[in-house]
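> forwarded from #structure-qc
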């Protein structure tokens, strides 16, 4: 069976990709914006097509000879995501029909259309409606609410709030009901949808037990061995709640606001199709899902995170090598490797950030991260998926990995709020470690920003390159 997977570098897609690769009965094709974001150790028989859902010719190429296509595309990071999502879904549906695809499998969100429905959830519902609008192709629309798994947006928010705040004053939305589900169970439903014998369009609502968000946080505290007190305050607004999440969790303000707006309405199961068509799948409890997620984090087994990819695509549409060559300001440091191997030095600078921090002057990085959070940026709280491995497209604190070459180079793109564009590069060349900070300022303020930071850069970057070499000696 020929299966196309879109969104294979996203949170669900990356995990589903692993499952489908291991499925011997599937001939898998991936449709990605940039194949650099894929793992380098993919099996050689995996077909890869580069493009997006707005490129109709590439869509036809990707969907040619396909039996089943997974649609896991979302444009939340774009300001006009609602219209883009509808157009994207229509393009995909039209191309799938022309190519003779038999089935589309779509993962959307639980919820119903009413005056309380958030724009974010409404967009997910409308996407499902577009994909299900034709009688010429079957669409299986899986609808999930709060997905609990290591690295998921919902879990990261709940875990961070629970761990950091012994006493929480919360808005009234904590009493809203939802039906969370473990990410592994979501994957079970998606994979098993390939083999359904049903020929009509289906909407399948999935979830475990019904809980309020307050109960979820208290259950999370129990799983973590913590005691927490929640005090709901009815006057806390959506904006205040969004800033609260922005400061104490890894998500940035824009994402936090979209999620908070969605918490006004219940997201509970509306049909029994999960039990009817997938009787062998029995979703695990919320607390077991939390324990499983925590274990994955503690054992460095996190496969994907909500921040792995930049959905806007802007990062991949640019030539970073050309841009850094045009950068106006440059801070470059060089040190000889001496008796160190390339492997030791590469391992050292690719383990930077996250829990290990940025060597000395961590308080300066933390301060910069806090300022970024206050300004609505990503801050340092995103950390990194794995302390020892990096791949193109994943987040590293307030940086994004845009290029990595084994034992040669790491290029990071700055995603913090900054008056210009910035990169940080580590490169091994001519038996030297070359560390370069590039900055392309925006206007006069960008130049003032760079010059005002020269003393701090001197301290931080001098220490950084020396510490990388020192750490490499331990490997």
């Amino acid at each position: 069976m020929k299966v196309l997977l879109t969104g294979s570098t996203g949170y669900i897609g990356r995990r589903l990709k692993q499952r489908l690769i291991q499925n011997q009965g599937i001939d898998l094709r991936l449709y990605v914006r940039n194949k650099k974001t894929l793992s380098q150790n993919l099996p050689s028989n995996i077909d890869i097509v580069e493009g997006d859902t707005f490129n109709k010719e590439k869509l036809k190429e990707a969907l040619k000879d396909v039996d089943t296509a997974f649609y896991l595309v979302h444009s939340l990071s774009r300001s006009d995501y609602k219209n883009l999502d509808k157009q994207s879904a229509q393009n995909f549906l039209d191309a799938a029909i022309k190519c003779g695809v038999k089935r589309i499998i779509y993962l959307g969100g639980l919820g119903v259309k009413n005056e309380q429905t958030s724009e974010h959830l409404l967009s997910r519902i409308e996407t499902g409606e577009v994909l299900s609008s034709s009688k010429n192709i079957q669409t299986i629309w899986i609808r999930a609410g709060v997905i609990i798994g290591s690295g998921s947006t919902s879990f990261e928010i709940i875990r961070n709030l629970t761990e950091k705040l012994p006493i929480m004053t919360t808005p009234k939305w904590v009493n809203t009901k939802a039906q969370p589900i473990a990410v592994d169970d979501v994957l079970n439903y998606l994979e098993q949808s390939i083999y359904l014998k049903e020929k009509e369009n289906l909407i399948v609502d999935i979830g475990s037990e019904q809980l309020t968000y307050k109960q979820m946080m208290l259950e999370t505290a129990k799983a973590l061995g913590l005691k927490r007190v929640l005090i709901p305050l009815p006057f806390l607004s959506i904006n205040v709640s969004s800033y609260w999440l922005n400061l104490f969790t890894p998500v940035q303000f824009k994402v936090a606001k979209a999620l908070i707006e969605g918490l006004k309405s219940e997201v509970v199961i509306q049909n029994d199709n999960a039990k009817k068509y997938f009787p062998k799948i029995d979703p695990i409890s919320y607390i077991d899902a939390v324990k499983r997620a925590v274990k994955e984090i503690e054992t460095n087994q996190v496969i994907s995170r909500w921040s792995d990819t930049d959905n806007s695509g802007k990062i991949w549409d640019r030539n970073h090598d050309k841009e850094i060559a045009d950068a106006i300001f440059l801070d470059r440091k060089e040190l000889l490797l001496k008796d160190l191997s390339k492997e030791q030095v590469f391992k050292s600078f690719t383990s930077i950030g996250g829990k290990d921090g940025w060597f000395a002057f961590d308080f300066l990085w933390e301060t910069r991260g806090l300022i970024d959070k206050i300004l609505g940026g990503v801050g340092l709280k995103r950390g990194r998926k794995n302390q020892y491995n990096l791949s193109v497209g994943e987040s590293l604190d307030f940086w994004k990995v845009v290029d990595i070459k084994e034992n040669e180079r790491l290029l990071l793109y700055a995603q913090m709020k900054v008056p210009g564009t910035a990169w940080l590069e580590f490169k091994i060349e001519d038996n030297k470690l070359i560390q370069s900070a590039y900055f392309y300022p925006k206007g006069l303020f960008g130049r003032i920003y760079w010059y005002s930071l020269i003393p701090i850069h001197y301290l931080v970057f001098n220490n950084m390159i020396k510490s990388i070499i020192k750490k490499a000696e331990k490997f």
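QC bot note: The CA atoms of residues 253 and 411 lie 26 Å apart. The chain has a mean pLDDT of 89.
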